[in-house]
Amino acid sequence: MKKNEIHWNDEARQKVLDDADRVLQDAVLAVAGSDDANDADKAYAALVAHLKDKFIDWEPGPDVRTYADAIAAGEIER
Predict the structure, then answer these.
(1) Vertex 40 angle, CA 34 and 42, to 5°
(2) Rounded Cα distance, 67 and 46, in Å
(3) What are φ and ψ of residue 73, in 5° steps?
(4) For 39-50, what is the mean pLDDT?
(5) CA distance linking residue 26 with residue 47, whole number of Å
(6) CB half-sphere exposure, 75, CA atoms < 13 A
(7) 39 vs 45: CA distance, rounded Å
């Protein structure tokens, strides 16, 4: 078996993505309900703090800024 043949099956791959989405959703909702919610930069920092230890080799990407801006704008529904 070659290295490129070793991978999660479709069901497991979907579960990994669903779990990652749930972690992101929980972090966004937690920050939206915090004192950091009124400032996009503070919301961004809080999101990074919530997410950094949840993923292997995690680096914040543009999605984190998008959600921080949405939090600061009061666009997150709870």
Answers:
(1) 55
(2) 11
(3) -85, -5
(4) 98
(5) 10
(6) 11
(7) 10
List b or e across 30-67, with b for residues whose CB sees 16 or more CB atoms inside 10 angstroms.
ebbeeebbeebebbbbbbbebbeeeeeeeeeeeebeeb
Tracing tokens 């919530």 back to the chain, one arrives at 50
What tokens does 41 get? 């930069």
Predicted model pTM:
0.89
Query: pLDDT (tens digit, 9 = 90+) per residue, 46-60?
Result: 999 999 999 999 999
Q: Can you give the three-state secondary structure of 38-56, one letter per residue?
A: HCHHHHHHHHHHHHCCCCC
CA distance 50 to 46: 6
